[in-house]
């Protein structure tokens, strides 16, 4: 699935919009310099490979590219999670947050207080005033009381913080295999998976326990005629 990120204005920049190639998400969070979450962006280091539609996040040596906030996608990445907050809903994928704009999705900053079941695949751990924070794409996360991770405002002293040494990387859990028992095509399979992702977030503890979320998605897909292993 190819996503065209483009600004709402001006029209002259539309032809230069970067394409994003998105792969399935991994529930296994990694320390800094981990995977890029499936996005294919400019090469690291900037220069002639950089694009105004992508931004290199250098803070805390994070060194990852993300689509610029304010750009609009014609669709969501496969596996994006729908998360309700306040009177609206947001979509989360690999550290990038989306907000619906008509039939499209704008890249936005997440609201403070929203909770996700897992961290982005790539993040930078920080230790600020005796509290462990996780940084990715301009946002700070802390462990939520009941599980999961909460988006919080930049803490005092964040500008002077230094990244923690990386922990030994655990072997990522393999992505589940989804088999369409009823012969569903790829487009229908992806549509069903996104709907199951949205339904899974409504289940008790799903937004604060990744295993609950994953089991809910598997149960939903099974009910729609898929085998998940």
UniProtKB/TrEMBL annotation:
Residues 32-53, 154-198 are annotated as: Disordered. Residues 36-48 have a biased composition (Gly residues). InterPro entries: DUF6515. The keyword Signal applies. The keyword Magnesium does not apply. Residues 1-29 form the signal peptide. It comes from the Bacteria. Pfam families: DUF6515. Residues 154-177 have a biased composition (Pro residues). Transmembrane segments: none annotated. Keywords: Signal. This is Uncharacterized protein. It comes from Roseateles toxinivorans.
């Amino acid at each position: 699935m190819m996503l065209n990120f483009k600004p709402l204005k001006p029209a002259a920049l539309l032809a230069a919009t970067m394409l994003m190639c998105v792969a399935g998400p991994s529930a296994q969070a990694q320390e800094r310099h981990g995977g890029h979450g499936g996005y294919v962006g400019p090469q690291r280091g900037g220069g002639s490979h950089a694009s105004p539609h992508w931004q290199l996040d250098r803070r805390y040596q994070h060194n990852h590219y993300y689509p610029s906030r304010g750009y609009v996608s014609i669709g969501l990445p496969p596996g994006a999670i729908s998360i309700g907050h306040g009177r609206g809903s947001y979509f989360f994928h690999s550290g990038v947050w989306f907000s619906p704009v008509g039939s499209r999705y704008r890249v936005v900053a997440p609201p403070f207080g929203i909770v996700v079941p897992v961290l982005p695949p790539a993040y930078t751990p920080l230790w600020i005033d005796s509290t462990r924070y996780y940084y990715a794409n301009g946002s700070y996360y802390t462990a939520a009381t009941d599980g999961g991770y909460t988006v919080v405002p930049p803490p005092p002293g964040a500008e002077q913080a230094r990244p923690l040494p990386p922990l030994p990387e655990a072997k990522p859990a393999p992505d589940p295999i989804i088999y369409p028992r009823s012969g569903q095509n790829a487009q229908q399979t992806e549509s069903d998976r996104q709907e199951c992702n949205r339904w899974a977030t409504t289940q008790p503890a799903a937004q604060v326990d990744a295993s609950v979320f994953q089991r809910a998605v598997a149960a939903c897909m099974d009910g729609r005629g898929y085998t998940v292993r």
